[in-house]
Structure formats: C-alpha cells, structure tokens
Amino acid sequence: MAEVQVDEVEGGERRRRRPLAEYAAELEAVSLSVRAAPPLRLKALVRACHHALALFDLLGVEAGFWKTEYAERLVALERAAEAMDSAEELVDRDVAAGRVRATGTHSNNLVRVKRGIELKRALFQLMLAQLQQQRPGGGGVSFDGVVSMAYAAVFARYHDKNVQSTVADSICAIPVKSISDFFATINETDESAAAEMQKYIDAANGIISYIDELFASRGVSADF
C-alpha cells in the first residue's frame, strides 16, 4: 500500500492530524447551528467541506480530478459568500434569474457540494456496516469496494457511461486496500473512526435535508 501522510510539522514538531475527526466536528457545528438558528451560513459550510480535501489525497493520483472538481466548487461558493451570507439568498437569486440548474451557477455548485456530502455519508454508512459485520479473520468488502458502492448509490446516475468507466478505473487504482488501512492513514482506530463516522452521518443528514427542503420551498428540485 502506498504510504500517505496526513501529519503536519508545526513548530518543529510533527502533529498527528485526524482529518475525519476535524471534518465531522466542523460539519456537526454547521448542522447544530442551522437547526438552532437558520439560515445556512455559506462560509461555515464551505469551511467545513474544505476538510474533505485531505481525504481525497488518500485516494491516489488517479482520483485527482475528483479533488480538483470539488475544490473548484468550494472556491466558487467561497467567493459567493463574500456577497451573499446564506444559502437562502444564493438560491433566491438564481430562482429570480431562472438559472437554478444552469452549469456554473451558485445553486448548481451548492447542489454539487451537497452531493459530495452525500457521497461521504454513503461511504461511511457502508464502512460502519462492514465494521458491525466483521468477523475475526474475516475479509469483508475492500476499501475500493465500498467506494465503488457509494459512488453507484450517489453519483452514477448523473454520469454517462464514459464518466462511469473513468471513475471505475480510478477506484481500482486507489492505493488503500482495506477499511482498517484507511483508518490507519488518518490516525484512527476502528473504534474511534466508527464514532467519528456516526457523528458525520448525523450531521450530514441534517444539512442534506435542509438544503433539499430549501430548494423544494422555492418550487425547484435539487435533483439535477
């Protein structure tokens, strides 16, 4: 397995980063905030989702285009947040202009970022299920296997056959081969990762539902 370092050197000392824990904590803060006092603040959402970029690095060079595309969406929303404080204002502007679904609009970028949250929710749900079914000495589904299943559940229907084939090749090239290896590269044990994944799933449920309901309340679907 190719070695991937997520640690950082800070003040001459190596700090063991925990990108999953960082991501889950930030997303949980956004979910709790919007539940207690809407609207959904764009800057907070973008800041939380930036933590996902460290996880993309673990998927190998073949998946670099996923990270690039996701980062571009986040940068676009970050720029939008300089003029618009909330997701509500962002969607309302595109609804008024009749351009919600147009490529490159802020609403389009918001939906793509939401789908990224959905992908990782599906991935963590699958990994939790594997941990719960794990038997001593048993193999279970490989890491690339659960990534493939998560992609099929969330993104595949939006992609044509050529894109699906490219994604499949990229998934096969992922250097991390087992779920436990994935946890080790992000400085987690099976037990600690399970707790962080559940925290992420709970937070993601709230944010995904909120964004879907936001679009529905404006008479449009976020399924595009």
UniProtKB/TrEMBL annotation:
<dbReference type="GO" id="GO:0005829">
    <property type="term" value="C:cytosol"/>
</dbReference>
<dbReference type="GO" id="GO:1902388">
    <property type="term" value="F:ceramide 1-phosphate transfer activity"/>
</dbReference>
<dbReference type="InterPro" id="IPR036497">
    <property type="entry name" value="GLTP_sf"/>
</dbReference>
<dbReference type="GO" id="GO:1902387">
    <property type="term" value="F:ceramide 1-phosphate binding"/>
</dbReference>
<dbReference type="GO" id="GO:0016020">
    <property type="term" value="C:membrane"/>
</dbReference>
<dbReference type="Pfam" id="PF08718">
    <property type="entry name" value="GLTP"/>
</dbReference>
<dbReference type="InterPro" id="IPR014830">
    <property type="entry name" value="Glycolipid_transfer_prot_dom"/>
</dbReference>
<protein>
    <recommendedName>
        <fullName>Glycolipid transfer protein domain-containing protein</fullName>
    </recommendedName>
</protein>
<feature type="domain" description="Glycolipid transfer protein">
    <location>
        <begin position="41"/>
        <end position="187"/>
    </location>
</feature>
